[in-house]
Amino acid sequence: MGTIKRTTRRVAGKTKEVIAEVVGDGKLQEEAKAEQRKIEDEDKDPSKLNPLGNLHRLT
User: Fold this and answer.
1) What kind and span of H or E run contains 46?
2) Mean pLDDT across the stretch 43-59?
3) Staple 32 to which of 1, 12, 15, 16, CB 3.0 to 4.6 Å?
4) Cα dihedral sign for 44, 46, 52, 56?
5) Which long-range contacts (CB under 8 A, 24 or more apart) does 36-39 make?
6) Considering the entire predicted model, what is its pTM?
7) Which DSSP category does 57 fall into?
8) How many other β-carbons are positioned within 10 Å of the β-carbon of residue 12?
9) What single-letter DSSP state applies at residue 50?
10) Angle between helices 3-23 and 26-44 (to 10 degrees)
11) CB neighbour list of residue 7: distance below 8 Å, 6 or more residues apart
């Protein structure tokens, strides 16, 4: 997944979480946290298109 797309998804998830917190919607807040965890898990797993995974972070 591209850096821009990944960053956009993170910002959207965090925005959703903040809005849910302000509104007081616990279900929406949990949904936003689940999406953020999914994005973090995807970042940890090497992509099929990028066999070197997060190797760039070591340099």
Assistant:
1) none
2) 62
3) 16
4) negative
5) 36/10, 39/6, 39/9, 39/10, 39/13
6) 0.60
7) G
8) 14
9) -
10) 160
11) none
